[in-house]
Amino acid sequence: MRMRIDELAARTGVTSRNIRAYREKGLLPAPELEGRTGFYTDEHLQRLDIITYLQDRGFSLEAIRKTLDAWSAGGDFSHLLTLKQILNSPFQTEEPEVVSVPELLVRFPEAMHDATLLTRAMRLRLIEPGPSNQLLIPSPLLLQAGVELTRIGVPLAEVLDLFERVRVDLSGVADAFVGIAERFLVRPVELGTDGAPSPSDAIGALEKLRPLALEAVKPILIRELVTAVEDAVARLATALEQQD
């Protein structure tokens, strides 16, 4: 596909001025010239997609330039596109659920009397605005876990506290795993370090990161849960003995 700059801008949502700026900063190759008209190709389209993606995640233009140069050094820009797909694809497919407000309130009766609970759940993105004044549940499994906790007597406010705390803790775990991957996979490729993996090998390793992280965390969590439950049962037994 060949496009003039205005066509490229319309397809990507990036202004012609920014396209020229990216070209001047080395983020985009020069267009193919025919006479005085420059024509852009699918590679420009793909690069702009990656540039926008990385900018949205806080990368500076210089960092993006170095990343693009490193990942396309082998002449196969598909490496970087594959990386974007890996980062964007969910680890496990879970179909969102659409519910009405009354249906949600049936599951969480406490929210009928305290609207701030729903507001907080939306802030935590447990529920989101859906079509036709309905609500979207991004993770029905997570929502059902909240339902079960409230059924055994845990107040909904405490359930939300628990979710927020767990999300913060697991965010730290995720950062640790990704930090290891960046240190030993991504950065060596970006810097051209001797002995660095090829882009294909680095992407293959990154693709395995999430299942490996999950398998590593699961037994630790189970072990800690067993210990915590045993401690709670022991405290309960002690309390009952003291009542006799």
Automatic annotation (TrEMBL):
Domain of life per record: Bacteria
InterPro entries: DNA-bd_dom_put_sf, MerR-type_HTH_dom, MerR_fam
Keywords of the record: DNA-binding
Keyword Translocase attributed: no
Residue intervals of the HTH merR-type domain: 1-70
Gene Ontology molecular-function annotations: DNA binding; DNA-binding transcription factor activity
Protein name per the record: Putative MerR-family transcriptional regulator
Species assigned in the record: Euzebya pacifica
Lineage, broadest ranks: Bacteria, Bacillati, Actinomycetota, Nitriliruptoria, Euzebyales
